Amino acid sequence: MAYHRTGPSQAIEIEQALDDPRCEQCGDRAYIKDRPKVRYIDLPVFGRPMSLLWRKHRLYCPNPDCQVTTWTNQDKRIASVNAKLTTRAAKWATKQVGCGRTVSEVATELGCDWHTVNDTVTVYGQALLETDHKRLSRTNAIGLDETKFVRTDNHKTHYVTTVCDVENHQIIDIVPSRKFTEVAGYLHAQPIKWKHHIRYGTLDMSPAYRAVFTVVLPEATQVADHFHVITLANRVLDTVRRRVQQEQTGHRGRKNDPLYTIRRTLTRGEERLKDTTAQRLAAMLKLGDPNAEVSLAYRVKERLREFYRQQDPEQAKTMLDELIDTCKKPSMPTELQRLGKTLTRWKQPILAYHTSYLSNSITESMNNLIKRIKRIGFGFTNFHNYRIRALLYAGKPNWRLLHNIFP
Prior knowledge:
Elements: E1 2-6, E2 9-15, E3 31-34, E4 37-45, E5 48-55, E6 58-60, E7 70-72, H1 87-98, H2 103-110, H3 114-131, E8 141-152, E9 155-165, E10 170-175, H4 180-188, H5 192-197, E11 200-203, H6 207-216, E12 221-224, H7 226-249, H8 258-261, H9 275-288, H10 293-309, H11 313-327, H12 334-345, H13 347-351, H14 353-356, H15 361-376, H16 383-394
Parallel strand pairs: 2-5, 8-11, 11-12
Antiparallel strand pairs: 1-2, 3-6, 4-5, 6-7, 8-9, 9-10
Helix pairs in contact: 1-2, 1-3, 2-3, 3-16, 4-6, 7-10, 10-11, 11-12, 15-16
């Protein structure tokens, strides 16, 4: 109807055409009582904020027997009830924030405050995620991993669990805890058809997550992440090194101690060492490890790495069995004996790598995307906002469905 401009502010005024309005209760013809103007935040035009003045129609029913007296026409195509943004502006803001922009940046472009945009994004984002059913029904492998949610002076460290679609590289959901009961409850609440479709479950050697897969998805093959298995071997190697170092020198590591100088070299792959580095490693072990305990731990770690490079599953199983038997020998250091017991408990999930060739690295990478959202938002204390923002950014929603959503 009109265009208004006052200084930096600009607005477009509209009014809908009514064609024989009727009372929804009794069906009698309704009449216009008033035309109130309602201001909404609309899409920016040429980089400048724009408002929409919607001249609504307040109608009344002349039928004295009708329980409905007056009402105001609503149209979700223009704006939802009690909304501050127009529908098109709300959907635009949801996609902008969901693709990685900050809420404050989008709010500045729209010419409104932070809370208005954030509330809109959570409403439309939640509606989009609930509508996009195909996002959850196309995977046969999921991964579980924890990530830190919040840690401030007023909050203790709170961890959440990321449920990841390992096959399609996307986040399925975020559970507000890493405890068995909450994570198992979430998976148990999923459709039976979806749970029967899951063939593999990847995890990082967490007893809680292993119990979740065992109880809720017993038919799924558990796959221990190979990175965490090698990390465990490196941790055992470092424990042996520190103990031997303490026994030989009587103090913690110093820069001139033989074992301390090679602490990082020990964790590197043997095939990646230069000749001079390998010679230096052998010399330092000979000098600081008289009983060859560190050397044994180093050999065990390298043998475990060879196990993961093995292509034949049967040969890999034989190699792992031999490694476990070696670690369990009474003559081996106690740290390696404990490692042998751990490998025995996790034997089947470790062997499953050679039949599935899956790992939990996809879940770890999704957690990195979540951390990017946390950096953009300067941290979160509200889990609902955190979950919606993370799923919009790393959950790969079908943005085309947003055009048909009117919450």
